[in-house]
Amino acid sequence: MREPVKQRIIKLLIGASIIFVAVLIIIFNLRDNLIYFYSPTDLVEINLNNNQEIRVGGLVADNSLKYEENSSIYRFVITDEKNIINVEYRGILPNLFAENKGVVVEGIYSGANNIIANKVLAKHDENYMPPEVIDALQKEGKWQGE
Amino acid sequence: MSELLSYLGIVSLCICLLVSLAQIKISYLKSKVNYINYFNLSLIQFVSCLLSFLILIYIFITSDFNFSLVYQNSHTEKPMIYKLSGSWGNHEGSLLMWILILTIFNFMFASMSKANIRLTEITIGVQSFLILGFLLFLLLTSNPFSLLSESPNEGLGLNPILQDPFLAIHPPILYLGYVGFSLIFSLAIAGLLLNNIDKNWASIAKKWTLSAWVLLTAGIGLGSYWAYNELGWGGYWFWDPVENASLMPWLAGTALIHCVSILEKRNTLQSWTVLLSILTFALSLIGTFLVRSGILNSVHAFASDPSRGLFILAFLLIVLIASLFIFARKGPFLDKEIKYHLLSRETGILVNNWLFLTILFIVFLGTVYPIFTDIVLNENITVGSKYYIFSITPIIFLFIFAMIITPFLNWSTNNYKILIQKIYKPTLLSVMLIFSISLYFDKLSITEISLLILSSILIMANLNSNILFKNNSFYLTSNIGRALTHAGFALLIISIIANASYAKEKITQAKVDDKIIVGNYDFIFSSISQEKEKNYHKIIANFEMQQHSGTLKKLSPEIRFYNNPPTITSETSIARMLFRDIYIVMNVPENQEFINVRIHIKPFMNFIWVSILMMMIGGLFSISYRIKNS
Question: What does the alpha-carbon distance between residue B516 and residue B507 come to, in Å, rounded to a whole number?
Answer without folding.
Answer: 10
